[in-house]
Amino acid sequence: MTKPSPFILPYAVTSLVFVLILAMLSAPRAQADTPAMPAPDMEGVSWLAGSAMEGGILIGRLDPGLEMTLGDETVPTATDGHFIIGFHRDSDTPQQLTVSAADGARRQITLTAGQRTYDVQRIDGLKRDHVTPPQAVLDRISSDSAAVRTARGRHDAGKGSGDFLAGFDRPVSGQVTGIYGSQRILNGAPRQPHYGIDIAAPRGTPVKAPAAGRVTLVRDLYFSGWTLLITHGMGLNAAFLHLDTVAVTEGEEVARGQVIGTVGSTGRSTGPHLDWRLDWQGRRLDAALVSDQLASLAGGS
Length: 301
Description:
Helix content is about 15%, strand content about 35%. By secondary structure, it is mainly β. It folds into two domains: about 15-30 and about 120-300, Distorted Sandwich (Glucose Permease (Domain IIA)); about 30-115, Immunoglobulin-like (Sandwich), CATH 2.60.40. Strands 11, 14, 15, 16, 17, 18, 19, 20, 21 and 22 form a ten-stranded antiparallel beta sheet that branches. Strands 5-4-7-8 form a four-stranded antiparallel beta sheet, with no helix packed on it. A hairpin with a 2-residue loop joins strand 12 (about 185) and strand 13. The radius of gyration is 19 Å and the shape is globular. The termini are far apart. Residues about 1-30 have low confidence and may be disordered.
């Protein structure tokens, strides 16, 4: 097992001092500003679940022999044609989805994500280097960020790729004390939104893989402490922050329900909790919303 020390950037200032403050909140979900948008009909595509909503995903299946792009990005597709499309927290620009056939024929639709309203959380009285790290630390933060970007680009999830389509298990039991999308204002300065959901639990509580995949990063990061990334396949990555110990290694395939570490308070954290995050192709997703959307697929609704 690996033991901890300090903290990361992509997950950075978003993780500051929140546990004590957020534990006092009931943590309702961000509200929809405009309704979730169903995907338009598209020849060659079967839409299975989900909706176009900030932080959410669309789940579909592509007919054999076709390829799909979103803007200029290829949409990863499983061998059986399954795919997902994710929508970032701030998805206010319509996106062009294109399906191409081997003979050059193309079909296009426009996806417009429903907008959400997010909480604003103001935290004052922090030490300056808790908000603006000193120059001596910036090189480490830059290195941490590069390592996370590299890990997110590794999509070989092994034999468990796509297992998440059967639904996500909660990685740890506990009270949700922080929600996706909240805008952080630290000492009066706007900082990155919070992209995860925080689950409070005692230090040492086992953290389990919510679905099968492959470990792409195990590293003690400046802002988020001991951090673990798993690719679940089809462009979907999960991150587990502030761990106390880590029970797996980079490159290892993990099974659904396997213990991958324990809850901790490493990095800039004020109490034991797990910060669980998802991203698709770099777009930050809402783990709570995506879990609900996957549950609807698994339930056949």
